Amino acid sequence: MGIWVLLIAPYQVSWDHLDLPFTQASIEMLDSGISFGIMSCTATTDKYCRALTQNEPAILVQNGTNNLRYTGGASKDEIIDFIQLLKETSDIELSEETAREIEERTAHEAWLVAFLPAGCARACDAPRAHWRAVAARVPLVTYLVVRPDGEGDRGARGVARGLPA
User: Using CA atoms in the order 109, 119, 129, 113, what is the torsion angle rounded to 10 degrees?
Assistant: First the structure.
C-alpha cells in the first residue's frame, strides 16, 4: 500500500493558507510515487470531513495502515519534510518479546522513548511529529519508540517508530 497525502477542507472553512504550499509540495514530489489529493467538502459531505478534521482544514497522511495528521506550518518545505520523515519510518508492535529485544540492543544503540496516554489520538500528533524529527536529526539515536502509557509495563501494546540513524 502506498502513501496518500490528503488536504481536507470542511465546508465553509477557509483553507487558502494551505492551498499553495500543499500544491507546491505535491508538484515537487510528483515523481515520488506518493498520491496527493484535495477533498473540498460540500454541505452534503461535511459531516464526514469534520469527523476527520473537526472545524479546521487538515493534511492527513495515510502510510500503510497508519493515519497521521500534519501539525506543522503552512510551508511547502515543512510539508515535504514531514512526508519524507514518514517515508523513512517503519512500525513494529511492542510485545513482551520485542521489549526484551530492545533491552538487549540498548547497549549498542540509543533510544528515545515517549510515553503517551493510550487513546490520545489527535492530541498526540504534534508530540509524535516532534519526537520523529528529533530522532531523525540526532545521529546517535537509532530508534524512536512511541508507546501508550498506562497499559502495563512489559507486554504492553504500542507503536515503535524505527528511524535509521
Answer: -20
> How confident is the model over 68-95, as pLDDT tens digits?
888 888 999 999 988 888 777 655 556 6
- The rounded distance, in Å, linking the Cα atoms of 81 and 72 is 10
Q: What per-residue confidence (pLDDT) applies to 92?
A: 53
Nearest one of 100, 73, 89 to 131, comparing CA atoms: 89
Q: Report yes or no: 163 and 134 within 8 Å, Cβ to Cβ.
A: no
- Which segments of 10-152 are extended strands (E)? 35-40, 58-63, 66-69, 90-93, 110-117, 141-149
pTM of the model: 0.65
Residues 146 and 158: beta-carbon distance below 8 Å: yes
For the chain, the distance separating the N- and C-terminal CA atoms, rounded to the nearest angstrom, is: 25
Domains and CATH numbers, the chain: 3-87 (3.40.30.10), 90-162 (no CATH)
Asked if residue 58 lies in contact with residue 14, where contact means CB atoms within 8 angstroms, the answer is no
